[in-house]
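Figure 6 in text form: structure in, sequence out.
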């Protein structure tokens, strides 16, 4: 890897390793989506992720990261990110944001999706749909020569035009041999100039969108972020390579790249 203003430029082999890591993550998220039904405990999602990591002979990237105690993050309803798997039983109408990473051959795959549990409200469907759509709006800006902060400006405009909020507390990031590399990738307009994107960069773009205020609180566990007004939130994330042919999404499962939300 070469450095460019603190960001790492990956070669074809390294991007191939990242693509394989992300394929595994996307397959795990597919399996989570199949599993998530009313009555499932969020700890069972963590167990599924661990089992699949064992089958793939890879390490879960989150487990032990800065002391995080699980392989996966499960954030329900008003929980934005970093929710702990537990004995909590998901119910019909809930939404569950699941963030997952693995380490394959020294490189980190990282992706997230929000899943409906059973029949969810029209408001929840809209939240999920707009969040996922905003991710793809951001990805369109991930081209060589563009300012990295153009991604967040596009995401924020798309979301706020639809009456929803964009969390400012957390941002996307470069990803490679480390889970969090430069550059930071905000989901909102910063008002300053950022790093120019270059071919070979790999970034994780991950809008977190709320039904109300973008302000969040951290619970007593030191990890779980919840909306301050306790309105619901959704989270979608892809790892994306910057290439001469435009942005390439790496976190594609064996089922292919499909939109995962349901129509409003």
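Output sequence:
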């Amino acid at each position: 890897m070469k450095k460019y203003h603190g960001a790492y430029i990956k070669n074809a082999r390294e991007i191939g390793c990242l693509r394989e890591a992300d394929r595994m993550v996307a397959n795990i998220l597919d399996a989570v989506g199949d599993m998530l039904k009313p009555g499932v405990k969020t700890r069972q999602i963590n167990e599924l992720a661990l089992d699949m990591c064992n089958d793939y002979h890879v390490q879960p990237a989150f487990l032990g990261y800065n002391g995080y105690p699980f392989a996966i993050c499960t954030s329900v309803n008003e929980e934005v990110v970093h929710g702990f798997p537990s004995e909590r039983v998901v119910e019909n109408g809930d939404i569950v944001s699941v963030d997952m990473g693995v380490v394959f051959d020294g490189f980190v795959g990282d992706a997230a999706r929000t899943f409906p549990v059973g029949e969810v409200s029209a408001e929840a469907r809209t939240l999920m749909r707009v969040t996922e759509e905003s991710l793809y709006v951001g990805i369109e800006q991930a081209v060589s020569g563009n300012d990295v902060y153009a991604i967040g400006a596009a995401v924020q405009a798309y979301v706020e035009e639809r009456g929803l909020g964009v969390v400012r507390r957390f941002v996307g990031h470069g990803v490679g041999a480390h889970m969090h590399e430069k550059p930071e990738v905000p989901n909102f307009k910063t008002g300053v100039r950022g790093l120019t994107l270059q071919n070979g960069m790999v970034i994780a773009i991950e809008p977190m969108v709320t039904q109300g205020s973008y302000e969040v609180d951290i619970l007593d566990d030191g990890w779980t972020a919840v909306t301050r007004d306790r309105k619901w939130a959704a989270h979608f994330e892809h790892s994306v390579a910057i290439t001469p042919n435009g942005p390439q999404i790496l976190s594609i499962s064996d089922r292919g790249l499909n939109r995962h939300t349901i129509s409003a």
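Caption detail: The CA atoms of residues 209 and 234 lie 5 Å apart.
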